[in-house]
């Protein structure tokens, strides 16, 4: 025993208290962690950290620790990809004889580095946190600001980790000087392409001239020249054919937070025909992403599938979608249903009243300045 007195110092009748250790105080109990006290009790009962508890089954079984699944990571997905979200450590240069590292694979999945190419967060870098394959959208955590946003997968570009670490938080990319440098580089590339195009054209032109001259030398005779003269005169008398002109593209009126009506009967078998929805994001001047009243997102919706809506209530806001005041928000003061016009007071011009056609305004459900 640990506190036993050596033999010869005590007998059965007399006990020497001064040979024994001092009693533990309350402060001693407070200084010992509860975990250490519990482990000491288990060790006293024969417990070993590397052996299991039991008579026959002595295998050490690690307990299952449940980890929170990130939002957007579907069932059955590879959880090992979560490690890619952690910042990478600096790797040493390869020594002679070491195998070279494999090229980085760009994966559209959690941990992937992307560059936003369109929308409100254009030219910002981020990392993918989740993928929604049904709606072709991804959840991206932006490097600048740390905000998580939902973006169409057609509006992002996968990039390597080196590019991400170099430019993700480089705010100088948005400066005027940086943009001017990029424009100068684009101009130089365009000049090089023009010079290369001119060299090819000159080479083809010289080759065709040589070919034509050799043909003229082989073709001789008066009859041949007369035939060519008749054909050329006939071609001069023929009026030139008019080139078919393409009809001009309709002007773009798509804006975010507009409430519109779906009028395409062929889309999804006519499931959304004549239903109202909200413009969630504008990808191109003629293509947008819409959200139905049930909350479902529809991607790649074309402008000609939608039409504007005039609100029935005077308290609802409208936005000018075409014309000089495009993008301005206001309220309808008076309607003329016979002429399909409305008197609108815009928030920026409170002292003026504008008479606008129904085709120039649309129901607006976004935030207002007032």
Automatic annotation (TrEMBL):
Keywords linked to the UniProt accession: mRNA processing, mRNA splicing, Nucleus, Repeat
Where is this protein primarily located?
A: nucleus
Pfam entry (one) = G-patch_2
CDD domains registered for this protein in UniProt: KOW_GPKOW_A, KOW_GPKOW_B
Give the location in the cell.
Nucleus
Query: In the UniProt record, does the keyword Nucleus occur?
Result: yes
- Matching PROSITE patterns, A to Z? G_PATCH, RIBOSOMAL_L24
Listed GO molecular functions?
nucleic acid binding; structural constituent of ribosome
Basic and acidic residues bias: where? 11-23, 174-224, 232-246
Q: Matching SMART domains, A to Z?
A: G_patch, KOW
Tell me which InterPro entries the record gives.
Answer: G_patch_dom (IPR000467), GPKOW_KOW1 (IPR041993), GPKOW_KOW2 (IPR041994), KOW (IPR005824), Rib_uL2_dom2 (IPR014722), Ribosomal_uL24_CS (IPR005825), Spp2-like (IPR045166), Spp2/MOS2_G-patch (IPR026822)
Domain G-patch: residue ranges: 34-80
Any Gene Ontology CC annotation: spliceosomal complex
Q: Where are the stretches annotated Disordered? A: 1-25, 64-109, 174-253
GO biological process terms on file: mRNA splicing, via spliceosome; translation
Q: Where is the signal peptide?
A: none
Give the source's domain of life in one word: Eukaryota
Q: What does this protein do?
A: RNA-binding protein involved in pre-mRNA splicing.
Family assignment from sequence similarity: Belongs to the MOS2 family.
Write the protein's name: G-patch domain and KOW motifs-containing protein
Organism for this UniProt entry: Scomber scombrus (Atlantic mackerel)
């Amino acid at each position: 025993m640990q506190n036993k007195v050596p033999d010869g110092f005590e007998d059965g009748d007399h006990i020497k208290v001064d040979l024994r250790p001092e009693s533990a105080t309350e402060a001693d109990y407070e200084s010992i962690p509860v975990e250490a006290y519990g482990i000491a009790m288990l060790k006293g009962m024969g417990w070993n950290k590397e052996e299991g508890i039991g008579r026959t089954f002595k295998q050490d079984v690690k307990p299952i620790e449940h980890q929170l699944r990130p939002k957007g990571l579907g069932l059955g997905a590879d959880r090992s990809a979560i490690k890619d979200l952690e910042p990478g450590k600096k790797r040493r240069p390869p020594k002679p004889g070491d195998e070279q590292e494999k090229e980085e694979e760009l994966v559209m999945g959690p941990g992937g580095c992307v560059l936003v190419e369109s929308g409100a967060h254009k030219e910002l870098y981020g990392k993918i946190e989740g993928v929604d394959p049904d709606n072709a959208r991804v959840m991206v955590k932006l490097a600048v600001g740390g905000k998580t946003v939902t973006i169409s997968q057609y509006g992002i570009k996968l990039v390597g980790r080196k590019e991400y670490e170099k430019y993700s938080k480089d705010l100088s990319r948005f400066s005027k000087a940086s943009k001017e440098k990029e424009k100068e580089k684009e101009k130089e590339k365009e000049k090089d392409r023009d010079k290369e195009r001119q060299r090819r054209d000159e080479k083809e032109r010289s080759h065709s001239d040589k070919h034509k001259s050799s043909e003229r030398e082989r073709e001789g005779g008066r009859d041949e020249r007369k035939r060519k003269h008749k054909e050329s005169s006939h071609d001069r008398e023929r009026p030139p054919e008019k080139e078919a002109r393409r009809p001009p593209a309709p002007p773009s009126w798509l804006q975010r937070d507009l409430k519109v009506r779906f009028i395409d009967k062929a889309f999804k078998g006519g499931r959304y025909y004549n239903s109202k929805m909200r413009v969630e994001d504008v990808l191109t001047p003629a293509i947008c992403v819409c959200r139905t009243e049930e909350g479902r997102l529809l991607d790649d919706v074309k402008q000609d599938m939608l039409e504007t809506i005039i609100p029935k209530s005077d308290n609802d806001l409208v936005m000018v979608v075409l014309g000089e005041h495009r993008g301005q928000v206001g309220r309808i003061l008076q309607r003329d249903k016979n002429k399909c016009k409305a008197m609108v007071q815009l928030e920026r011009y409170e002292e003026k009243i504008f008479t606008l056609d129904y085709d120039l305004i649309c129901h607006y459900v976004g935030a207002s300045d007032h």
